[in-house]
Amino acid sequence: xxxxxxxxxxxxxxxxxxxxxxxxxxxxxxxxxxxxxxxxxxxxxxxxxxxxxxxxxxxxxxxxxxxxxxxxxxxxxxxxxxxxxxxxxxxxxxxxxxxxxxxxxxxxxxxxxxxxxxxxxxxxx
Length: 125
Fold this sequence. Notes:
Oligomer: single chain
Radius of gyration: 13 Å
Distance between the termini: 37 Å
Strand content: over 45%
Structural class: mainly beta
């Protein structure tokens, strides 16, 4: 299973970006998909997760109300729409996947088996 993240870039404070994560090599769509980020000098942290049907979603408090996670199973792609971006959102963003047909979502990175390469988001003031 391979994950390919894209969509990062340089944006000004208050701006928006949409990240995409496309998955290949899996047999079905029953995966929990998550987004994590790692800022310079900090540990990787949970951002958002979505269940395989798209109905269940979870967000870190720091992004709730500003970020929206969605998925298009027909395209094997998960999106992270980021709005009202702040300098503290600057980080490398990683997508991750865990085979699961259950409704439970995971905030701990140890539960995710597959990872993308990361895409850099820089928010300038």
